[in-house]
Design brief:
coiled coil, mainly alpha, 105 residues, elongated, 2 strands, 4 helices
């Protein structure tokens, strides 16, 4: 295995992870520092760990763990998640009560 991947190889790897993107997207992510890379003439040297780190960050978008969001946004998202989980707990309790033949009072 080579130490570095080219832009085309990086694009293939992202496609393997079902990321819908093209070469311009990858170049943009590199320019924005989302994917760490070094220029190599007209191409780039990109490591697999750099791409995997990008994928982790991408998977956290919209969650309390999204890179670069404020503490206030994190707290709001965590509160929303707690509320969502509480609703699931309440639903499961009702289902259990029904299964056990308990009537809600």
């Amino acid at each position: 295995m080579r130490e570095y991947m080219t832009l085309a190889e990086t694009l293939d790897l992202l496609h393997n992870y079902e990321i819908d993107c093209d070469e311009l997207d990858v170049r943009k992510w590199i320019a924005e520092g989302e994917i760490e890379a070094t220029e190599n003439g007209e191409d780039f040297n990109i490591t697999e760990p750099a791409v995997l780190s990008f994928l982790v960050d991408l998977s956290r978008v919209g969650t309390p763990y999204e890179k670069g969001i404020s503490d206030k946004t994190k707290i709001v998202r965590l509160e929303e998640k707690v509320e969502e989980l509480q609703k699931k707990i309440d639903k499961l309790k009702c289902e259990l009560d029904f299964e056990l033949g308990r009537l809600p009072f």
